[in-house]
Amino acid sequence: MNIVETVDVRKTYQQGNVEVTALGGVSLSIQKGSFIALAGPSGSGKTTMLNMIGGLDSPDSGHIVVNGNELEKLTQTELASLRLHNIGFIFQAYNLIPVLSALENVEFVMLLQGIPSVERRDRAMSILDDVGLEGAYNRRPAELSGGQQQRVAVARAIVSNPSIVLADEPTANLDSKTGKGLLEMMRKMNEEKKVTFIFSTHDRMVMDYARRLILIRDGLVADDEIRET
After folding, report:
1. Per DSSP, what are the bridge partners of residue 90?
2. Pick from 80, 44, 90: which is nearest to 185 by CA?
3. Rounded distance, CA 179 to CA 151, Å?
């Protein structure tokens, strides 16, 4: 069963007087439970593709279906609901809320989902324990290292049990040991809960962990390699 389907997705941006093609017609079928890396150099279009799948940006033309929803037919409210209940995001810049503690940052999505406070707190503490932050519940982002902030971001993305996790350069600011630990944790969640993970990356370690490696170059799919089934 395909959880993501893109058909001839195209996107151009205006940079000054120059029109830049970010995606030149990308068609992908991604099965539920996949562990995929979209790889390529900076400017290749991989992050744009991730943003399209997450409904954070819309294509100039083409067709995108996520979890059975045709994105171009959704209202902004419906799109926001899809993201809230079905998609977890891990951003390269963490995007944690500075005034909230690690625990509160992880709880935030569940708060928006209307999950009761006791359950929110229990689930947030449990997932922070899982990512090795059991002693850091009450620290704010400024009091955490880059690696710790990224772990909070990962915990926030997966705590609500989304169908899909979209991760943009999740290991970019981490040392190799921390990055490997996070990848192991996400791989375990993928195997046990069948959560679909789609990474945008140029990190060789992420590529090596992926079960499917899609190379994006100049806004097009240059290679598509399945490592495991």
Report:
1. 167
2. 90
3. 9
Alpha carbon distance 204, 126 (integer Å): 30
Q: Is the dihedral of CA 219, 221, 225, 226 positive or negative?
A: positive
Q: How many CB atoms lie within 10 A of CB 171?
A: 22
The answer, yes or no, to whether residue 229 has pLDDT greater than 80, is no
pTM summary value: 0.91
At 102, list the tokens: 């690690």
CA-CA distance, 55 to 71, in Å (whole number)? 7
Q: Give the type of residue at 12.
A: T
Torsion of CA 155, 79, 219, 24, to 10 degrees: 170
- Each residue's pLDDT tens digit, 16-35: 888 888 999 999 999 999 99
